[in-house]
Design a protein that fits this description.
The longest helix has 19 residues. 44% of the residues lie in helices and 20% in strands. It starts with a helix and ends with a helix. The protein has 162 residues and is an alpha/beta fold. It has a five-stranded mixed sheet, sandwiched between helices.
């Protein structure tokens, strides 16, 4: 379980920055299962700056809700830079947000494959002004720790873009 009180110090400056600039955020989440959106919406007034969240845990959801090509998933795997970038782009394309962050990863304890260990997370972002990027994270700890750290990193990245 994510400690929302511990995450609030990351959400407050994000909320302030987005509100001050009249921008809105969308999230596309796989391994965090909506925890980034939950952290954002735990703050009163988040409807001013949080536009929507997509929980796309399955490959089908990534394709159906975000427009991630099934062929891209087949070629690179759901946990890849390519898919994370496509998720972020899809969140922008299917929302009215100005900024999108996306995460896909292997929180564990199972799910590891050769070259993709437990704790591997891809964080990607995209903005309406054309900024886009991705970062590979290799996170220590159990499932809860990997997911909590992923939420914190996604919020930090959103703040950097706000």
């Amino acid at each position: 379980m994510l400690d929302l009180a511990a995450i609030e110090p990351l959400v407050q400056p994000l909320a302030a920055a987005l509100t001050a600039r009249g921008r809105r955020l969308a999230t596309a989440e796989s391994c965090t299962g909506g925890l980034i959106a939950a952290a954002c919406t735990a703050l009163a007034g988040s409807s001013l700056w949080f536009e929507r969240g997509f929980v796309t845990y399955s490959n089908e959801a990534k394709t159906e809700l975000l427009g991630v090509p099934a062929a891209l998933i087949a070629a690179h795997g759901a946990v890849s830079e390519e898919v994370a970038r496509a998720m972020a782009a899809g969140a922008l394309a299917h929302s009215h947000a100005d900024i999108a962050v996306a995460v896909t990863g292997i929180a564990g304890p199972g799910g590891a494959t050769p070259g993709k260990p437990v704790g591997l997370v891809w964080l990607a972002w995209a903005t309406r002004d054309g900024t886009a990027g991705a970062r590979r994270l290799q996170l220590p700890g159990d499932r809860a720790a990997v997911r909590a750290t992923t939420v914190a990193e996604a919020l930090r990245q959103a703040l950097a873009l706000a």
